[in-house]
Amino acid sequence: GVHGVRLHSGTVPLPGPVALVLQDITETRRTEAVRRDFVANVGHELKTPVGALALLAEAIEQAADDPEAVQRFAGRIARESDRLGRLVRELIDLSRLQGGEPLPELVPVEVDDVIAEAVDRTRTAARAKDLQIAVGGHAGLVVRGVESQLVTAVTNLLANAVAYSEGANRIAVAARARSGFAEIAVTDSGVGIPRKDRQRVFERFYRVDQSRATSTGGTGLGLAIVKHVASNHGGSVTVWSEEGLGSTFTLRIPLSSGATSDPHGEPVAA
Ligand code: ADP
After folding, report:
1. pLDDT tens string for the chain (270 positions)?
2. For residue 178, what are the β-bridge partners?
3. How far is the CA of 119 from the centre of ligand 1 (A)?
4. Which residues pair with 172 in a beta bridge?
5. What whole-number distance in Å separates Cα of residue 51 and Cα of residue 59?
6. pTM higher than 0.80, yes or no?
7. Which residue's CA is the nearest one to ligand 1's atom 21?
8. Is the Cβ atom of 247 under 6 angstroms away from ligand 1?
9. 192 CA distance to ligand 1 centroid (A)?
10. What is the rounded CA–CA span in Å between residue 128 and residue 97?
11. Which is the closest atom of ligand 1 to the Cα of 246?
C-alpha cells in the first residue's frame, strides 16, 4: 500500500508523505541494483566467448602446419561466434521488450502461423537430436499481438524443449482457447526442472545447471524474453515440471475479439 514501507513481509505504518518518499527511494535503489547486476552479468557472459575466441585464434596460429587441428579449432570458433551472436541478438531483443520503445500496435495474429513458423525455426535442431515435434490442439485461434514477438516466444520454448531433451523423445506444441486466452503449451519429456529452480528460470541469466546450460549453448535469456513477450501482450507464461519426467511451458495470450471459440472449452470472453 501507499501508507507504509514494505519490510520483508510486514508493513510498518507511517504517515503518508514520509512513506511515499521512503518507498520511492527503496524503489529507485532496487532498480539501480537490478541494473548494476544486469550490466555485471552481461559483461561476464560476453567475457567467456570472447576469451575463448582469443585462445582459439592463438591455437590456430600455433597449429598452422597441422590441418586437422586447424579444422577443429575453426569449428570451435564458428560455434563460439554463433553463441556470441545469439547472446547479442537476445540482449537487443530483451532491451527492446522491457521498455523504452513503445509496443507496436497489437493486431489479429493467427496462432497456427506462429506455431508453424516457430516449428520451422526449431526443426534443424530437433532433427540433429532425433526429436519429433508434434503439432496439435485447436486450429484457427486468433490472438491480439505482435507476430514477430509471439514467434520469438514460441521458438524459445521449443528450442528449450529440444535442448533439454535426451534420446528420441517427442516434443508437442498445442493450442487451445480458454477464458478469453489462447493457451499455447510446449511439452517435452526431457530432464525437467527441480522444484527449487522452477520459478527462477524466468529470471535473466538464471540457469539450473551452469555446465549443462553452457554445453547446450544456452544464454539464460530465452525465458526472460518469453516472460516479457507475455506481459507485453497482457498474458502470462507458466511452467509445470517434474525432474526426470519433463516440462510443459504454457504461454497465455488474449484472444482477439471475434476469434474462433473453443467448442470444448469455456466461452470466449473477448
Ligand atoms: P538457456 O539459454 O540457458 O536455455 P532460458 O532462459 O531459456 O536459458 O532457460 C533458463 C534455464 O531454465 C535453462 O538453463 C534450463 O536450466 C532451464 N530450462 C528451460 N527450459 C527447460 C526445459 N524445457 N526443460 C528443462 N529445463 C529447462
Report:
1. 444 444 444 455 665 666 666 666 676 776 777 777 778 888 888 888 899 999 999 999 999 899 999 999 999 999 899 889 988 988 888 888 887 667 788 999 999 999 999 999 999 999 999 999 999 999 999 999 999 999 999 999 999 999 999 877 889 999 999 999 999 999 999 999 999 999 899 998 888 876 555 555 678 899 999 999 999 999 999 999 999 999 999 999 999 975 444 444 444 444
2. 181
3. 18
4. 134, 187
5. 12
6. no
7. 160
8. yes
9. 9
10. 31
11. 24
Q: Is the ipTM of this complex over 0.90?
A: yes
The answer to whether 83 and 56 have CB atoms below 8 angstroms apart is: no
**And the C-alpha cell for 214?**
553452457
Look at residue 22 in the predicted model and tell me its pLDDT.
66
The closest-lying atom of ligand 1 relative to the alpha carbon of residue 209 is 16
Mutate to test the pocket of ligand 1, among 164, 221, 239 (most ligand atoms within 8 A of CB): 164
Question: Cell for 256?
Answer: 482477439
CA–CA separation, 29 and 142 (whole Å): 41
The total of other beta-carbon atoms located within 10 Å of residue 189's CB is 19
Residue 171 in contact with ligand 1 by CB distance below 6 A: no
Residue 204 identity (one-letter amino acid): R
Cβ–ligand 1 distance for 145 under 6 Å, the answer no
